Amino acid sequence: MRTLPVGDRALLIEVGTGDEAQALHAELLRRRAAGDLAVAEIVPAARTVLLDGVDAPSRLAERLASWEVPPVPPRAEDVVEIPVRYDGPDLADVAAHWDMDEAGVVRTHSAAEFRVAFCGFAPGFGYLTGLPRQVPRRATPRTAVPAGSVALAGPYTGVYPRSSPGGWQLIGTTDAVLWDHARVPAALLSPGTRVRFVPVGAP
Amino acid sequence: MTDRALAVVRAGALTTVQDLGRPGHAHLGVPRSGALDAPAAALVNRLVGNSPEAAVLETTLNGCAVRTRSTLTVAVGGAPCAVTVDGRPAPWGAALRVPGGALLDIGPARSGVRSYLAVSGGVAVEPVLGSRSTDLLSGLGPAPLADATVLPLGPPPRAHARVDVVPHPAPPTELVLRVTLGPRDDWFTTAAVRTFTTRAYTVSTASNRIGLRTEGPALERAVPGELPSEGMVLGAVQVPPDGRPVVFLADHPTTGGYPVIAVVHAADLPATAQAAPGTPVRFVAVRRRG
């Protein structure tokens, strides 16, 4: 674990793996809830957690060095199930990358349990880890990916909360509402949420 | 319809509703947003007796015009500009009573970029995640103003403003931004770090509420390849593949994959809101305080 100061009011904590980042994030949330950590924003990402709005970053960095970070604890709440029609235009390409048929892609994706590693790109867009295989981004990004597209890129799967440009491989569609600012909570997925994709209809 | 409202007659190039923003949701991918020149927004709110969290209008370069429906106290600040009420000159940087049915025109910025209009009671559009700010990156909050938009206003403040005129800093003729290096300065060559902190840049026309883009010498990377996405702070100086530094402003993305060479001091950020394209920019490295 390495801490990098970011300006005068933030710290970037860098770890070796995505799992370590998720474990560190869970521990930071636990400590904040316990009143042991004063910070305005805790922003997990691929290999880091950013602590923004910290009064004395160098003092906090010293304290962090002595912390034991347990592995990601199992979350008490239920798994969020996202219904998917596996009808994406890139299903055949993903099947070719994985050397299987399209039904195999559906089985692989719907059998895995995912966890939201971090959010970004757009409100409510979660980067979900747990995919047993990887797939490259598309060589040419699409100028418009429809809202509700279920997609893959690198080690991640995710769902586009709204229409936007994007380079991920589209394998399906969901009617689940990922983001609704009038709802509490607005985001269906937040860092740490467990997710399962459930096939609906015939592809 | 209530007369606590403003009708937009001339929306201007880009006029948005802004308040203190919606910090605290970065982990969900929600930018903080909020007035770019926060001290200017706070001053005009003070002039009309509003609390600091009241929403104001933020114009871009060519102002805007609104028609009142009832007598209102207003104040225009930020970028200096001509202010008129029904065509007659009115003061800038001071509280002003405007009768109902009058046309309040905020002229083009004489210098600087963004003028701010506060109205007693504040702009009372529906808040999103606790803020009325327009976020141009993710589309949260009200859409930018369009001609004929009607903006509801909040109840007038009970307390009268205790100030008539407040001093405004002049828009910068040169932007001097104090930075602390890191977290990813080691992704650049030593020569690039020296270039960054000694050479002159200028504000690019591609600048917006998301970032202050610059033109000038490209910064050469020492480490090739991509950085896994990491959290970004306000004032982060990110260097995209073209090598020109971008200073992240209020609507910046919450995570990013280009290395951050340095972070601008918070106290120096409001001036970036008023730095017109072509303004010289210098990044001055200072030692970390925290």
TrEMBL record, chain A:
Residues 1-189 form the Carboxyltransferase domain. Gene3D superfamilies: 3.30.1360.40, Cyclophilin-like (2.40.100.10). InterPro entries: CT_C_D (IPR003833), Cyclophilin-like_dom_sf (IPR029000), PxpB (IPR010016). It comes from Streptomyces spongiae. This is Allophanate hydrolase subunit 1. Keywords: ATP-binding, Hydrolase, Nucleotide-binding. It comes from the Bacteria. The keyword Nucleotide-binding applies. GO terms for molecular function: ATP binding; hydrolase activity. PANTHER family: 5-OXOPROLINASE SUBUNIT B.
UniProtKB/TrEMBL annotation, chain B:
Pfam families: CT_A_B. InterPro entries: CT_A_B, Cyclophilin-like_dom_sf, PxpC. Residues 27-289 form the Carboxyltransferase domain. The keyword NAD does not apply. Keywords: ATP-binding, Hydrolase, Nucleotide-binding, Transferase. The keyword Nucleotide-binding applies. GO terms for molecular function: ATP binding; hydrolase activity; transferase activity. Gene3D superfamilies: Cyclophilin-like (2.40.100.10). It comes from the Bacteria. This is Biotin-dependent carboxyltransferase family protein. It comes from Streptomyces spongiae.
